[in-house]
Amino acid sequence: xxxxxxxxxxxxxxxxxxxxxxxxxxxxxxxxxxxxxxxxxxxxxxxxxxxxxxxxxxxxxxxxxxxxxxxxxxxxxxxxxxxxxxxxxxxxxxxxxxxxxxxxxxxxxxxxxxxxxxxxxxxxxxxxxxxxxxxxxxxxxxxxxxxxxxxxxxxxxxxxxxxxxxxxxxxxxxxxxxxxxxxxxxxxxxxxxxxxxxxxxxxxxxxx
Length: 208
Fold this sequence. Notes:
The protein is mainly α.
C-alpha cells in the first residue's frame, strides 16, 4: 500500500477510535448516574461499583481521545503514558470496590433489592461485548496497546454486569445478601489483573 494511502487509512482509523470513545463516554456517564443512584438507594456495593466502573471507563475513553489528538498522534511516549493512565484507572476501581466490599461483608450489610439495577445489568451484559469487540478491532488495526486496553475495560464492564446480575438476583430472589459484595470482589480481582497487564505494556495484540 502506498505511503499516502496508508497514512490516510490510519487517519480514518484514528477518527473512528475517537468516535467510539466519545460514544462510550456518553453512554457510561448515563449508566453511572443510573447505577450510582440506584446503588445508593439500595445500599448495594456491587451496583455502586458498577457505576464507578462506568465513570472510570469514561476516563479511559478520554485517555484515548487525548492519545489520538494533535501532536500525540503516533507518539510512542504518549502511547506509553496513555497505557499507564488506563492502568491507573483499573487500580482505582479495584481499590474502591475491594475496600467497600470487605466493609460490607465484615459489617453484614444487607442491601435492598434493586430491580432498576437488575434491568440495567441485563441490558449492559449483551451490549458491552459488542462495543468492546469493535474498539479492540480498531485498536489492533492502529497497533495501539492503549486503545486495546481501553477496549478490554469496556469488556470488563460486561463482566461486571454479569456479576451484578448474579449478586443482585441472588439478593432479590433468594435473600443471599452476601452475593452482592462477593460479586464486587470478583470484579476487583479482574480489575487488578487488567491494570497490571496495562502497566507492564502487555496487551497490544493479545486480545482477539
